[in-house]
């Protein structure tokens, strides 16, 4: 028994050490800093300052509002796109090309992509020129410095996470399931809503959680597309660490953001669980 356990323990040492060194240890440093003064004395004043200030609650609301809207937009766009890639496209080279087009932008820095959207969403950018040419608007619309501009940038960056997770879930639903449903007299709509959609829901929830977490913690895209007009919580944290150099208060902001985000994800997970009757 000991001989068989030793290789397993040796294999676990490296990933466990990596997890402790690069995840738990930094988290512990931030947590300890948030609970101490610059002189190392224990205190809760940083959290009291955050929770008692209406400004921080307003920034939190803006952050989570943008994150929730980004998640909803990615779900509404990503699910049909995943369905098209998995169920509609039959020619494998075209499907492979679509997946490459979807994934390739992820290899580009968020800074580069955000700067690209700054050009596209400008007053003389391609988006405004296209809307004017189509007659949708008469004069250039303001995108930069608005929540809509941030939302567009985040949806573009995070959409692949929904498409890939949902596509993987849809690919696991065999054609035999649909044929059996049709043989039992179910319509295509009934088959989708009662069989396919519930089976793909775990993939959809996984993608939605990733999108929400990444949107809530995003810094580069909101910082560039907001034009200094909108502040999200990650920008407050960055200011404390890079400009004010108040690592204790920055740690408290980080832990507050982490707890709030995990609480929302937990609540969403509980609400999405199927109810047992």
From TrEMBL:
Name this protein carries in UniProt: ABC transporter permease
Main location: membrane
Transmembrane segments: 7-35, 55-82, 94-112, 149-171, 191-216, 247-268
Keyword Transmembrane helix: yes
Membrane topology classification: Multi-pass membrane protein
InterPro entries named among the record's database cross-references: MetI-like, MetI-like_sf
Naturally occurring in which organism (per UniProt): Xanthobacter aminoxidans
Subcellular location: Cell membrane
Presence of keyword Secreted: no
PROSITE patterns: ABC_TM1
Lineage: superkingdom: Bacteria
Keywords: Cell membrane, Membrane, Transmembrane, Transmembrane helix, Transport
